[in-house]
Amino acid sequence: MKLDMNQFLFEFEKNCSKLQKKSFKKDEIITTYIAKRRQICILLSGSADLVRYDSSGNKTIVEHFTKNELFGEVFYIVATNNELFVKARQACEVLFFSYDTLKHKCKQNCDFHQVLSENLADFILDKVTLLNTRIELLTKRSIRDKILGFFTILSIRNFSKTFTLPFSLTDLADYLSIDRSAMMRELKYLREEGFIKKNGNTITLLYK
Amino acid sequence: MKLDMNQFLFEFEKNCSKLQKKSFKKDEIITTYIAKRRQICILLSGSADLVRYDSSGNKTIVEHFTKNELFGEVFYIVATNNELFVKARQACEVLFFSYDTLKHKCKQNCDFHQVLSENLADFILDKVTLLNTRIELLTKRSIRDKILGFFTILSIRNFSKTFTLPFSLTDLADYLSIDRSAMMRELKYLREEGFIKKNGNTITLLYK
DNA sequence: ATTTTTCTGTTGCATAAGCAACAAAAACAT
DNA sequence: ATGTTTTTGTTGCTTATGCAACAGAAAAAT
User: Fold this and answer.
1) What residues contact residue A106 under an 8 Å CB cut-off, 6+ apart?
2) Does residue B82 share a domain with residue B112?
3) H or E stretch covering B151
4) What is the pLDDT of residues B177-194, one digit of tens each?
5) Which pTM does this prediction carry?
6) For chain A, what percentages of helix, strand and coil (3-state, to nearest 5) are there?
7) Which of A56, B3, B63, B179 lies 20 to 30 A from A121 at CA?
8) Are the CB atoms for B102 and B116 separated by under 8 Å?
9) Which structural domain, as residue segments, surrounds residue A171?
């Protein structure tokens, strides 16, 4: 039995008492990552950022989450002393549970749990795909290649040479881990050299 | 029931006929990524690289796999036209199966398959951790921060300020997506400024 | 409706990091 | 044992990219 995320949540909510749903206002801290707890969260609405402070105090937005995305410390066991927390970017609703609870809860060996654990693997696989996409872009050698790589993905996903960015240009620079002004400059060059057309946050690819 | 990778493989081999084991010599192509097949592979011995050629012909080593690591197209559904394949770096033994087969094979609802699909999620989670580690390093802003970030992780994993690199310096530059000579220069500076001691591929951290 | 904040767009300057090219050392192969 | 290939280590030159600083546009808040 194959579920999409909405069915998954509906089934889960109907069947399980162990999960908690909470609401957050903009800028509130949703969770702080504590490895041993093995918490897993689903963002039901709104958007949130995974923020890292390293030992020198530098801040990075490591990931940006939107509707139906998974996050939590099970996904992020990195051997460093960095502080990691998730902060609401807009008002959010979040579902909390423990990974181990989800997997092993039912003593009665119910069908529902079988379905659940099968689908969990699929959702985690979706996450892997997101991460691999990001790595694919981060490993490109120049700002130009990063931008064009990202645009190509959006173009293919939209079945169109024209598409609108899913987040602000400021966030895009952060996602690609490049300086925003350097990115804007490169976008200008791409426009001048006839590779792209740009109207605010709507882009059209002009090549190939 | 919680399995480690070796137990997992033993159980799988004993119980499942649907899986294939093959051997490869150095530089042979182990698999080419074809999204619809949803293949999943486990590297039993040796080491291999996931290689990407983009449309301009640039080659990148996207990932490097060693014993017991998972790879395959289920993990890498990126919407681009890039050619992706896995190439043996040394002689390798590889286990092949389809993700969907693994999850749904048994009609008889056997206990073994229940255990299997639970553990599959865990193995995929390990993969997520690896990917997040890589992203953590790739998003650092300077070569120095990337190197020190990587060294810090190794140091923590080894419970020691002294450790040996798990692969060559050439590969390290590739893993961090930086120019090798620039990395060597930075290592020299780090030595001169007293941050590290370096003896071949053995590093000692001198700070904090 | 007006203020405040965030986002976009731009530019000059400094430098970190890429590129190219080479030699010595080490690892591998015959 | 000897030749071949890969890895390490280095350095001069060039340039892509980061940084700082600013102004106008857009969005959000009051």
Assistant:
1) A112, A113
2) yes
3) helix B143-158
4) 999 999 999 999 999 999
5) 0.88
6) 40, 25, 30
7) B63
8) yes
9) 143-205
